[in-house]
UniProtKB/TrEMBL annotation:
Organism, scientific name: Variovorax paradoxus
Domain HTH gntR-type: 29-96
Regions that span the bilayer: none
Protein name: HTH-type transcriptional regulator LutR
InterPro entries: AsnC-type_HTH_dom, GntR_C, TF_FadR/GntR_C, Tscrpt_reg_HTH_GntR, WH-like_DNA-bd_sf, WH_DNA-bd_sf
Coiled-coil annotated spans: none
Keywords on record: DNA-binding, Transcription, Transcription regulation
GO molecular function annotation: DNA-binding transcription factor activity; sequence-specific DNA binding
Length: 254
């Protein structure tokens, strides 16, 4: 009987590809994050306006990076509803979704009025230092008020975020931070004139005084009216205003 010859099978397994060093991954992620942040600023600052088209190569050349982090950044912006990819023709900045902004303002209203109620409850552990910091900015004599639109705009956003953060609910603050990020672009079309700055100082001051006096219902009522004013301004925004904002270069957030 002839013995059957069994072919030799190598037991040597192919060597797996060398992993990308952690340091290289970190650098790659950092570049993608930087591109993402820059493009988002470009949209928020109206360097790009709704309807503008561009290619990955154009962004890559302008920012001096490869197309890979550019593509990753654009996919993130696509998921957030800022841009869309066009078949074989690059990317386009999406028009504002005003229905979505309305819903985000409604959510903001719920979060912030809930926060001020919590701040006025005696049994709650709240961050009084945050409230003191806000008082140092907003409860000042008229002669000491800032007239710098960009600075006041930043303080305004910090005011609302600090109210929620001071209430001591980290999850509430996280959700509010996300809402703030998503409406920032539209808030930049309000708050460009001195009367708006004056009104903001007055309204923030009244809200703070009510909170510090533990008058929750009054604080919530004042805050609701304050946000509704901003929400009403959003409804008036037109694409023409967006283009004017880009060319004027003076849009700032409310």
């Amino acid at each position: 009987m002839t013995a059957t010859t069994i072919p030799h099978v190598s037991t040597v397994r192919p060597r797996p590809a060398s992993p990308v060093p952690a340091s290289d991954k970190a650098v790659f992620r950092t570049r993608a994050d930087e591109v993402y942040a820059q493009l988002k600023r470009d949209v928020a600052d109206f360097i790009f306006v709704p309807g503008d088209r561009f290619t990955e190569n154009e962004i890559s050349d302008r920012l001096g990076v490869s197309r890979t982090p550019v593509r990753q950044a654009l996919f993130r912006l696509q998921q957030e509803g800022f841009v869309e990819v066009l078949f074989r023709s690059g990317w386009r900045v999406l028009p504002f979704d005003f229905d979505q902004f309305e819903q985000l303002y409604d959510l903001r209203m719920v979060l912030e009025t809930t926060a001020v109620h919590r701040l006025c409850e005696a049994d709650r552990r709240v961050d009084r230092s945050l409230l003191d910091t806000l008082a140092d900015i907003w409860l000042v004599p008229a002669a000491q008020r800032s007239s710098d639109t960009a600075q006041v705009a930043q303080w305004d956003e910090a005011f609302h975020c600090s109210l929620v953060a001071a209430a001591g609910n980290a999850e509430m603050a996280r959700v509010h931070g996300d809402v703030t990020e998503r409406i920032r672009i539209i808030r930049r079309l309000d708050f460009t004139q001195q009367p708006r700055i004056d009104a903001t100082y007055e309204e923030h001051g009244k809200i703070l005084k009510a909170v510090r006096a533990n008058r929750g219902d009054q604080a919530a009522m004042l805050l609701r009216a304050h946000i509704e004013t901003s929400q009403a301004e959003v409804r008036k925004i037109t694409l023409h205003q967006v283009h004017l904002a880009r060319h004027a270069g003076k849009a700032a957030p409310r």
